[in-house]
Amino acid sequence: MSRERSAPATRRGFLKAGLAAGGAVATGGAARAAAGDPAITEIQPWMQELGPGVDEFPYGMPSPYESHVRRRNVEWLTADPVSSINFTPIHELDGIITPNGVCFERHHAGAAQVDPAKHRLMINGLVDKPLVFTMKDLMRFPRENHVYFCECAANSGMEWRGAQLNGAQFTHGMIHNVMYTGIPLRLLLEEAGVKTNGKWVMPEGADASGMTRSVPMEKAMDDCLVAFKMNGEALRVEQGYPLRLVVPGWEGNMWVKWLRRLEVGDEPWHHREETSKYTDLMADGKARRFTWEMDAKSVITNPSPQAPLTHGKGRTVLTGIAWSGRGTIPRVDVTIDGGKNWHEARMSGPSLSKSMHRFYFEFEWDGTPLLLQSRAHDSTGYVQPTKDELRKIRGENSIYHNNGIQTWYINEKGEAENVEIS
Amino acid sequence: MSRERSAPATRRGFLKAGLAAGGAVATGGAARAAAGDPAITEIQPWMQELGPGVDEFPYGMPSPYESHVRRRNVEWLTADPVSSINFTPIHELDGIITPNGVCFERHHAGAAQVDPAKHRLMINGLVDKPLVFTMKDLMRFPRENHVYFCECAANSGMEWRGAQLNGAQFTHGMIHNVMYTGIPLRLLLEEAGVKTNGKWVMPEGADASGMTRSVPMEKAMDDCLVAFKMNGEALRVEQGYPLRLVVPGWEGNMWVKWLRRLEVGDEPWHHREETSKYTDLMADGKARRFTWEMDAKSVITNPSPQAPLTHGKGRTVLTGIAWSGRGTIPRVDVTIDGGKNWHEARMSGPSLSKSMHRFYFEFEWDGTPLLLQSRAHDSTGYVQPTKDELRKIRGENSIYHNNGIQTWYINEKGEAENVEIS
C-alpha cells in the first residue's frame, strides 16, 4: 500500500497514476491560450451594464445559474412527502459548511410552521422544579457555538442490498454540517434540578407527529445543546425553528425539532421511534436497539454519478467528505484502482470534533476506467469498513447505520456509476 | 481592573454587578411557572396540521417570522444605490458564520450578473506564459478551505467625528465571515511563471466599474485565494460570482469581485481606489496610502440600539464579535460601567486566524444605566484603542480604518444608544 503524505495544496502534488500502469499520462488541459476564445475578445454585457443596487435584495439568493444546486427527494422512497426525506446536494458543495438553504429535510408530519412568540419549552418529570420557558427566557441563558454534522441514521440505508441509488446526493446526502448556537442542555436541566433517579430525558417536538426519543442523562449532561441558530441565523423552519435539540455525533432522529418539552424519567420510554423504527434488524431476526452513535464514514462527492469528469485526461481533482460521531478525522485514504493502491488524501479546513471534514486527492487521469473509494480513520483509531465487512456482522435486513465504503466506477468517457466490488 | 477567567458556559457564571455598587440584584426572570400561560394550555395549530412536505422547497428560506433579519442600506450615505453599501444585521446573528443571504454588499456599479460559462480569468503582464482559464479549467487546480472575515475599510467610518449611526448594523455591519473555498493564488501565478521583476499583482473585476487594486507579490504568494465558493455553495452574485479574490486580513476593496484578470507588474498602478479612495487623510493634510491590514477590532452586538434589553432586571447575556487582520483573538475585555471595571469575556466557537470570534459576558442587571464597551486583544499582543487614542494620531479627517472602542449607553428602560465617553 503506497501512501502520499498530507500536505498543503501544491501544483506539484498531482499524482501521475491511473488504472492502466504505464498508460499515457496527459499533462495539460488546465489552462489554455487566449487566442481565438470569443469569451475573451467580446465585451460581455455585465461589463457594460449597471447591476442591481444595494437596496434590491435585503435577503440574497444564489445566482440563477446555480438553480441545479438544490435538495432533491425520491418519490418512490416514501408514501407521502409530508413524512419523507430530501437530500443535500453534496456533489455541488465544497468546504465543510452546508448552506442553510440546502440542508436535507426529514419530517414526520411536514415542516411545522411555529410562531416563536407562542412557542414554549417545558421541562417536567423527575425534576425539583418543573419549568416553562418562552423564547425570550431562553435568550438569558449562556450559549455556545459548535460546528456539528447531523446525519440521518438511514443515510446510505438503501445500499445494504447492493448499489441502488445513482448519485452521492441520494446515497449519502442525508447529512448537513452547520455551526449551531445553543444553550447547553445541562444548564436547563440544572435550572430545573434533576432528581437522583432521573436517568433519561425525553425530548418532544411541537409538530403534528409529536416526535419523541429517549436520551440517556450522561449524554444530555455532556454536549447536547438546545439550539436556536444555525450558521449564524435563526434555525430554518424545516430544521426545527425556533428550537431544536442537538445531540452531537448521534443519529439525526434524536435531534428533535420544534422542541417543546423535555421530560426527565428513570428509564427509556420505548416509543415508536426507538422500537419499530430506528432499530437494526440483524441476520438472526433479532434487532439491535439504541444504536445512537454515528460511526466514521466518508464518501467521494466529486467525481460521482451526478458530477462526472467532463474534462478528459490530465489533471483531475477528486474531493469528498468524512465524519465521525466519536471525534475528528485525522486521515482519509483514497484509491482510484479499486483498492490496489491507497493514497493518503489531503485534508483542508478546520478539523473539529463531530464535524464534517473535507479531503482532496489530485491526480493525472490517463483516461482509463477508474474505481474510486475513500476510507475514513477517526481519532479513536476506528477505520471505516467495507460494505461486505458490515454485512458479515449485520446481515442485509438493516436500514440504518450503513457506513460501508462507497465505490464509484468511472468509464473512459468520465461518466460515473454506483457499483460494488468485492 | 478586575477580570473574570474565560470558561465554558455555566449558569453559575453570571456576574452580579451593575453601575450602582450595592444596588438591588434581581435573581430570577429567566424561567416562569407553567400555570396560567395560554401558550401552554392551548394546542397550537402547528401541532394539529401537517406542514409542507420535502418536495416543496428545493432551496429553503428563513421563517417569515425572521423577515426583520435583513441587510439595510442608508439612503443619504451615497448618491446612488448602484455605487453604495448595505450592512450585515450583526445584531441579529450569533456564532461566527455569516449566512450568505445577509453578507453586506459594496458595489461600484451594481452587482454584476455574470454567466459562468462565458467568464474567463486571464493572467498577463510580467509572466513567462500569459494564460486564460475557463471556470472548468480552474476546477482542476488544488483548493483550500478557510474561514476569513471580509471587512470594508470604511466600516465604522462615520464615527470619526463622534457617535453618528444608531445601531451596530450601521456602525459595524460592513463585515462578513464565511468559509471560502478557493485556489491558492500562488498556484495560478506559478502556472504562468512570474518574472523576476514581477513585484505586484493587479486584480481586475468584470463588473462595469472595472475595479482594480495593487497587491504586493509577497501577499499574493502568501495566503490569497481565488475563491469560487462561500459557506459551501457558489459565491453569491453580489459577492463576486463566479470568482473573487480573497485577501485574508486585508481591507475588503482589495477582494476584487467578478475577478477576470490578474496582471503582474513591477510597481503599483496607483489607480483610483488607492489614490483618491481608500487612503487616509491625516490631520496635517497628508494622506496615508496602502493601509491594507485590518487592525484588531470588536463590537458588542447585543444589547445595542437595534437590540435593546426588553426583559428588565436580572440575568442578562451580552455578546459581540471580534477580529484581527493579523491573527486570532485570544481575549476580549468587556466593561458595563464605562471602563471603571473590565472583565474578561468568555469566547465560544473556533478560534481561527483572520476570522471573526464570538464573545459573551453574562451578568445580573440591576436596572441602572450601563455604559458598555468591548476591547479586543489579538495574537500579536495588539490591543484595540479608544477612538480618542486613534484621533490623536490620525485626526478627524479619515474615513477608513476606524477600529476604536465602541460605546453603547443603556438606560433604565433597557434602550440603547450610540454614545462617546472620554
Automatic annotation (TrEMBL), chains A, B:
This is Sulfite dehydrogenase. Pfam families: Mo-co_dimer, Oxidored_molyb. Gene3D superfamilies: 2.60.40.650, Oxidoreductase, molybdopterin-binding domain. It comes from the Bacteria. It comes from Brevirhabdus pacifica. Its cofactor is Mo-molybdopterin. One of its GO terms (biological process) is sulfur compound metabolic process. Keywords: Metal-binding, Molybdenum, Oxidoreductase. One of its GO terms (molecular function) is molybdenum ion binding.
